Amino acid sequence: GICHDQGRILVNEKQQTNVEHIYGVGDCTGGCMLAHVASMQGEIAAENAMGHPAVYDGKTNPSCVYTHPEFAGVGWTEDQLKEENIGYVVGRFPLMANGKSLIMGGDGMIKILAGKEYGEILGVHMIGPRATDLIAVGALAIGTESTLEEVIGTIHAHPTVGEGVREAALAARNRAIHIPNR
Protein backbone atom coordinates (compact mmCIF):
# COMPACT_ATOMS: atom_id res chain seq x y z
CA GLY A 1 0.00 0.00 0.00
CA ILE A 2 3.00 2.37 -0.14
CA CYS A 3 2.80 4.83 -3.04
CA HIS A 4 5.65 4.66 -5.52
CA ASP A 5 6.48 6.04 -8.95
CA GLN A 6 8.72 4.28 -11.45
CA GLY A 7 10.53 2.32 -8.75
CA ARG A 8 10.97 5.10 -6.21
CA ILE A 9 9.11 5.33 -2.93
CA LEU A 10 7.27 8.63 -2.58
CA VAL A 11 7.93 10.52 0.67
CA ASN A 12 7.18 13.96 2.05
CA GLU A 13 9.63 16.41 3.66
CA LYS A 14 9.43 14.34 6.87
CA GLN A 15 10.60 11.28 4.88
CA GLN A 16 7.14 9.82 5.57
CA THR A 17 5.34 7.64 3.04
CA ASN A 18 1.60 7.72 2.51
CA VAL A 19 1.43 5.11 5.30
CA GLU A 20 1.85 7.32 8.37
CA HIS A 21 4.19 5.05 10.37
CA ILE A 22 6.43 4.02 7.45
CA TYR A 23 9.35 6.15 6.28
CA GLY A 24 11.68 5.97 3.30
CA VAL A 25 15.24 7.27 3.01
CA GLY A 26 18.17 7.15 0.64
CA ASP A 27 18.35 5.66 -2.82
CA CYS A 28 14.87 4.08 -2.69
CA THR A 29 13.30 7.56 -2.70
CA GLY A 30 14.92 8.37 -6.04
CA GLY A 31 16.49 11.64 -4.95
CA CYS A 32 20.15 12.46 -4.71
CA MET A 33 21.89 9.11 -4.24
CA LEU A 34 24.70 10.02 -1.87
CA ALA A 35 25.53 8.44 1.49
CA HIS A 36 25.47 11.74 3.37
CA VAL A 37 22.00 12.49 2.00
CA ALA A 38 20.67 9.08 3.06
CA SER A 39 22.19 9.55 6.50
CA MET A 40 20.51 12.94 6.97
CA GLN A 41 17.22 11.59 5.68
CA GLY A 42 17.53 8.71 8.15
CA GLU A 43 18.00 11.17 11.00
CA ILE A 44 14.95 13.14 9.82
CA ALA A 45 12.85 9.96 9.60
CA ALA A 46 13.99 8.80 13.06
CA GLU A 47 13.18 12.19 14.62
CA ASN A 48 9.69 12.14 13.14
CA ALA A 49 9.11 8.50 14.09
CA MET A 50 9.93 9.45 17.69
CA GLY A 51 7.52 12.41 17.64
CA HIS A 52 10.12 15.15 17.19
CA PRO A 53 9.19 17.25 14.13
CA ALA A 54 11.98 17.57 11.57
CA VAL A 55 12.09 18.19 7.82
CA TYR A 56 14.61 17.40 5.10
CA ASP A 57 15.88 20.41 3.14
CA GLY A 58 18.12 19.43 0.26
CA LYS A 59 19.34 22.95 -0.52
CA THR A 60 22.44 22.37 1.63
CA ASN A 61 23.20 18.98 0.11
CA PRO A 62 26.77 19.01 -1.19
CA SER A 63 27.75 16.97 -4.22
CA CYS A 64 31.27 15.62 -4.06
CA VAL A 65 33.54 13.79 -6.49
CA TYR A 66 36.46 12.09 -4.76
CA THR A 67 38.99 12.23 -7.58
CA HIS A 68 42.27 14.05 -8.02
CA PRO A 69 41.59 16.91 -8.13
CA GLU A 70 38.47 16.82 -5.98
CA PHE A 71 35.24 18.46 -7.19
CA ALA A 72 32.45 19.71 -4.91
CA GLY A 73 29.43 21.94 -5.18
CA VAL A 74 26.38 23.03 -3.25
CA GLY A 75 23.43 25.26 -4.07
CA TRP A 76 22.61 26.94 -7.34
CA THR A 77 24.74 26.80 -10.48
CA GLU A 78 25.14 29.71 -12.87
CA ASP A 79 23.02 27.90 -15.47
CA GLN A 80 20.19 27.45 -12.94
CA LEU A 81 20.34 31.09 -11.87
CA LYS A 82 20.22 32.23 -15.49
CA GLU A 83 17.33 29.87 -16.26
CA GLU A 84 15.36 31.23 -13.28
CA ASN A 85 16.34 34.82 -14.15
CA ILE A 86 17.83 35.41 -10.69
CA GLY A 87 20.29 38.29 -10.47
CA TYR A 88 23.67 37.23 -9.12
CA VAL A 89 27.33 38.11 -8.81
CA VAL A 90 30.27 35.74 -9.15
CA GLY A 91 33.49 35.56 -7.22
CA ARG A 92 36.26 33.30 -8.51
CA PHE A 93 39.55 32.57 -6.85
CA PRO A 94 42.22 30.44 -8.57
CA LEU A 95 43.96 28.16 -6.10
CA MET A 96 47.30 28.83 -7.81
CA ALA A 97 47.17 32.07 -5.79
CA ASN A 98 46.72 30.16 -2.51
CA GLY A 99 49.89 29.24 -0.63
CA LYS A 100 48.57 26.05 0.98
CA SER A 101 47.28 24.77 -2.38
CA LEU A 102 50.73 25.38 -3.85
CA ILE A 103 52.36 23.53 -0.94
CA MET A 104 49.99 20.61 -1.56
CA GLY A 105 50.88 20.60 -5.25
CA GLY A 106 47.32 21.40 -6.20
CA ASP A 107 45.55 23.71 -8.56
CA GLY A 108 41.91 24.55 -9.00
CA MET A 109 39.25 27.19 -8.42
CA ILE A 110 36.72 28.27 -5.83
CA LYS A 111 33.59 29.99 -7.16
CA ILE A 112 30.92 31.71 -5.08
CA LEU A 113 27.55 32.77 -6.48
CA ALA A 114 25.66 35.37 -4.48
CA GLY A 115 22.44 37.31 -4.88
CA LYS A 116 22.97 40.59 -6.68
CA GLU A 117 20.81 42.70 -4.36
CA TYR A 118 21.64 41.36 -0.88
CA GLY A 119 24.79 39.30 -1.43
CA GLU A 120 23.31 36.12 0.06
CA ILE A 121 25.32 33.01 -0.81
CA LEU A 122 23.42 31.02 -3.45
CA GLY A 123 26.02 28.50 -4.57
CA VAL A 124 29.60 27.43 -3.94
CA HIS A 125 31.58 25.28 -6.37
CA MET A 126 35.18 24.12 -6.10
CA ILE A 127 37.78 22.03 -7.78
CA GLY A 128 41.10 21.39 -6.10
CA PRO A 129 42.70 20.10 -2.93
CA ARG A 130 40.34 19.65 0.04
CA ALA A 131 37.26 20.65 -2.02
CA THR A 132 35.19 17.81 -0.54
CA ASP A 133 36.15 18.94 2.97
CA LEU A 134 35.63 22.64 2.34
CA ILE A 135 32.21 22.38 0.69
CA ALA A 136 30.60 22.14 4.14
CA VAL A 137 31.45 25.83 4.56
CA GLY A 138 29.37 26.59 1.48
CA ALA A 139 26.51 24.42 2.73
CA LEU A 140 26.58 26.22 6.08
CA ALA A 141 26.60 29.62 4.37
CA ILE A 142 23.58 28.68 2.26
CA GLY A 143 21.72 27.09 5.18
CA THR A 144 22.22 30.14 7.41
CA GLU A 145 21.56 32.60 4.57
CA SER A 146 24.99 34.13 5.05
CA THR A 147 26.10 37.00 2.84
CA LEU A 148 29.34 37.80 1.07
CA GLU A 149 30.03 40.41 3.73
CA GLU A 150 29.69 37.81 6.50
CA VAL A 151 32.11 35.45 4.75
CA ILE A 152 34.51 38.37 4.16
CA GLY A 153 34.21 39.41 7.82
CA THR A 154 35.11 35.93 9.06
CA ILE A 155 38.80 35.44 9.82
CA HIS A 156 40.16 32.44 7.92
CA ALA A 157 43.29 30.71 9.17
CA HIS A 158 46.51 31.13 7.16
CA PRO A 159 47.92 29.20 5.45
CA THR A 160 44.88 27.09 4.54
CA VAL A 161 43.06 26.18 1.36
CA GLY A 162 39.93 27.45 3.13
CA GLU A 163 41.06 31.06 2.97
CA GLY A 164 40.36 30.74 -0.76
CA VAL A 165 36.65 30.81 0.13
CA ARG A 166 37.09 34.27 1.63
CA GLU A 167 39.14 35.35 -1.39
CA ALA A 168 36.33 34.22 -3.72
CA ALA A 169 33.86 36.28 -1.65
CA LEU A 170 36.22 39.26 -1.85
CA ALA A 171 36.50 38.77 -5.62
CA ALA A 172 32.68 38.91 -5.92
CA ARG A 173 32.92 42.41 -4.43
CA ASN A 174 36.00 43.38 -6.51
CA ARG A 175 38.08 43.47 -3.32
CA ALA A 176 40.34 40.46 -3.85
CA ILE A 177 43.71 40.66 -2.16
CA HIS A 178 45.81 37.99 -3.89
CA ILE A 179 44.51 38.32 -7.46
CA PRO A 180 43.79 41.31 -9.70
CA ASN A 181 40.28 42.74 -9.43
CA ARG A 182 38.28 43.18 -12.61
Commentary on this structure:
The protein is α+β, with helices and mostly antiparallel strands. 30% of the residues lie in helices and 19% in strands. The protein is built from six helices and seven strands; from the N terminus they run E-E-H-E-E-H-E-H-E-E-H-H-H. The strands form two sheets. A five-stranded antiparallel sheet has the order 3-4-7-6-5. Strands 1-2 form a two-stranded antiparallel ribbon. The longest helix is centred in the N-terminal third of the chain and has 15 residues. 36% of the residues are buried. The mean pLDDT is 95.
Topology:
Layout: E1 4-5, E2 8-9, H1 35-49, E3 63-65, E4 70-75, H2 78-83, E5 88-94, H3 99-103, E6 109-115, E7 121-128, H4 131-143, H5 148-152, H6 163-172
Antiparallel strand pairs: 1-2, 3-4, 4-7, 5-6, 6-7
Fill in the keyword field for this structure:
single chain; about 180 residues; alpha+beta; five-stranded antiparallel beta sheet; two-stranded antiparallel sheet; 6 helices; 7 strands; about 20% strand
Largest sheet: 5 strands, antiparallel
User: Strand order of the main beta sheet, please?
Assistant: 3-4-7-6-5
In total, the number of strands is 7
Number of helices: 6
- Uncertain regions: pLDDT < 50 for 5+ in a row? none
Give, in order, the helices and strands.
EEHEEHEHEEHHH
Assign a percent range to the helix content: 25-40%
Mean pLDDT, all residues:
95
Class from helix and strand fractions: alpha+beta
Overall form = elongated
What Rg do the Cα atoms give? 19 Å
Distance between the termini: 59 Å
Beta-strand content estimate:
15-25%
